[in-house]
Amino acid sequence: MSTDSNGPTLEQLREQARHCTACPLYQHATQTVFGVGSASSHVMLIGETPGDREDIEGLPFVGPAGALLDRALCDAGIDRRDCYVTNAVKHFKWEPRGERRLHKTPAQREMSACRRWLLGEIAALHPRLLICLGATAAQAIFGPSFRVTRARGQLLDSPLGVHAIATVHPSAVLRGPSPEERERSYQAFVADLVSARAALMSLGGARRAPAGPRTRGAAR
Ligand code: SF4
Fold it and tell me: Which residues constitute the domain of residue 113?
C-alpha cells in the first residue's frame, strides 16, 4: 500500500474514530476501541473485534485472550511493548445471553465499513510486518476468500504492500475442548509467532531478544 506521510497520525485517527457511526455496531457498544502501542512499532498485531472487557476498558486485548496473547508473545521472544495492537473492527459486537454479552462475529459489511480505520493505522504506522490473529483480521488484509488454515505461519506479501503472517486468534486456543487440545493449539500458536519473529528479524524490524522458554503451557 502506498503510505502517506501527510495523512492523519494515529492520535488523529483515534480521535476521529471515537465518533464513528459508519455501521450500526457503535449503537450497542460502550466505546470505540482503537489500537494501542508505540508509533515506532515495526509490527502490528491485528485481532477481530473488542471483547466484553475490551469494550468496557477501551483497550484491545486486555481480557482472557489478551492474557494468552501476552504469554504466547513472551514465549516466542516478542515483547508486546514493541508491538502496535489493534482490531479489524473497532466496536464490540454482541448478543445478550442471560446476564452476559456474548461475542458475535462481525458481518462483511461491518468489516468493510471499519476497514478505513485499519488502513489508516497501517498508513500512519508503516509497520514492517502485520500479524493477523484469526480469520476476520486475515480477511480484512487479504480479502474474504483467504483461509488461515491454508497459510498460517507463512510470510506472505499482502495486497497492501506490507508483509503479513496469519495465525489463529488466541480465543480459539482458549476454546479448545480439552487441556491436551488447548496445549497443542497453544504450542502451534507460539510456533507461528516464532515464525513471525524470524520474519521480522529478516525484515530488519526485530530486536534480538532470546526466545522465552516454551514450557509454560496454554490456557491456564
Ligand atoms: S465498528 Fe468501525 S465502522 Fe462500525 S461504527 Fe465502529 S468504528 Fe465505525
Answer: 10-202
